[in-house]
Amino acid sequence: MLSLDQVNALDQADFTALLGGIYEHSPWVARRSWPQRPFESLSRLQAAMAQALDSASADERMAVIRAHPELSGKAAVRRDLTADSRREQTGAGLDQCTAEEFAQLQEGNRAYAEKFGFPFIIAVRGLGRRDIIAALQRRCAHSREQEIAEAVAQIHRIAALRLAEKISG
């Protein structure tokens, strides 16, 4: 874990290398945040990264949404998740689904992606498998616009949690 002072002292390449995975497979978010340093607090750093995503083009935001893996999806089965995603999904017990829960997730993921055109995203920390399945089923009733906004909000929550694991202060 690095201190915020250490992070503030990094050049753009090292800053991007360190924080490039905070927003799943989207190092450009960190790169665009770097010029705003020095950050006075961890929350200011998180806000700068959130602003980089929020001010991006609709296509760039959608690319970040689509960069997220399905929960208990093909990438998880293949063990092809980023270390952060694997840790988050394992922490929520998604690697221990019953056959029924796994089937519900698979069907929910399919229906969600078919309706919205992107994967279901939820910050799983503090949630159990049943909570996640219920949220997936509930959110399938939303409009596409609602779900884009919700996906971005969940991505920001995931990013804040990931930052707190990497940086003290």
Q: Can you summarize this structure?
A:
The protein has 169 residues and is an all-alpha fold. The protein has helices at 4-8, 12-19, 27-33, 42-54, 58-67, 74-77, 83-91, 99-116, 129-139, 144-166, and strands at residues 2-3, 167-168.
Any key phrases for this structure?
2 domains, two-stranded parallel sheet, UraD-like, 169 residues, mainly alpha
CATH topology of the largest domain: UraD-like
If you compute it from the alpha carbons, what radius of gyration comes out, rounded to the nearest whole angstrom?
16 Å
What is the straight-line distance between the termini?
Answer: 10 Å
CATH superfamily of the largest domain: Oxo-4-hydroxy-4-carboxy-5-ureidoimidazoline decarboxylase
| CATH class descriptor of the largest domain | Mainly Alpha
- In which order are the strands of the major sheet placed? 1-2
Main beta sheet: 2 strands, parallel
Low-confidence runs (pLDDT<50, min 5 residues)?
A: none
**Helical element count?**
10
**Number of self-contained structural domains:** 2
Q: Label the overall shape.
A: globular
Order of helices and strands: EHHHHHHHHHHE
